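Sample 3 of the quickstart, ligand adenosine monophosphate:
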Amino acid sequence: MKILVAVKRVVDYNVKVRVKSDNSGVDIANVKMSMNPFDEIAVEEAVRLKEAGVATEIVVVSAGPTQCQETLRTALAIGADRAILVETESELQPLAVAKLLKALVDKEQAQMMILGKQAIDDDSNQTGQMLASLLDIPQGTFASKVVVADGKASVTREVDGGLETLALTLPAVITTDLRLNEPRYVTLPNIMKAKKKVIDIVKPEDLGVDISPRLKTIKVEEPPKRSAGVMVADVAALIEKLKNEAKVI
Ligand code: AMP
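Result:
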């Protein structure tokens, strides 16, 4: 079984981003970039499936600028076999990424596609669902457990009030939730080995995909500053404020 994993290069989760002065977006100049955390979980899950003898090959894909090669190298160091960069300097929205991934899935004939449940920069939570829809195959989103047997994937997902388990026929799309696994640390020998693995570079045009944006960002603003709290003298004063000022009780 061939697994295709999508990995996005995003602003590192430790970075506190700032809004640009013209409110057109966030400033990512000279900011640390890393693999989207949910995608690290996706790569780890694919590697575990390969180690368990379920998967035979793991292909990682990233779409974006040349620097995405660093993200792909990290995925190769975790244990992916080869990588594809869909290189473009243009802005990519979830539908465009889903179309690019569909073209690659058709080409690679992968049986399982693993994506993060969301990218922590745009928080869209759309690409996996759109990919499953474009391919017209089953989807198991927000997976916290994946078991593959007899050509089926059993995906456990956390839903309001409990756990839901879906049986998906393959090929299928799975998106990862935080609890699925804890990605391994990348070791130096594996980083060295990853340098020898192949990264193929293609352009969106080579895949016949129109990536033009469908959505326009009108304005990006900082969230309102929280006002300072007040100390109350006793419980009675607190209750009085909750009742008459905040009006929550
Ligand atoms: P989103 O729908 O933007 O929240 O992204 C969900 C998931 O889609 C991410 O966790 C990635 O697995 C995948 N994805 C989104 N954008 C890209 C990209 N430019 N390159 C590779 N994978 C992506």
